[in-house]
Design a protein that fits this description.
The longest helix has 26 residues. The protein is built from 4 helices and no strands. The chain is elongated, with a radius of gyration of 18 Å. By secondary structure, the chain is mainly α. It starts with 8 loop residues before the first helix and ends with a helix.
Amino acid sequence: MTTSAPGSPGATGRLSFLRTIRAALTTPAALTYLGGFAALLVWAISSTIAHAPGDASFAMIWPMLASLPLGLFVVPGLGEHPASVFVPMLLGALVNAVVVGWCYRTLRSER
């Protein structure tokens, strides 16, 4: 196993990447997207729980659509476990928030 020293180019590249991700996730646009996604997910879960067991609720479609394209992936090996639905949606929302934040920072940067 090789590790790079704190001053080496590999460590600098990782820190730069993590700083870029953090900067993108803390933009107002990314935080607004994540807040909207969280509100949509809470609404969908509460709506699904509130319905009668025999009645189908399609409320979980909306957070899945909001986290496209990763929201449609299936986690292999989980079968019908609830994580097979939530993990791709949450990862999709994080990736989308990074993209939205990066676009926000790029458009707002002065040249």
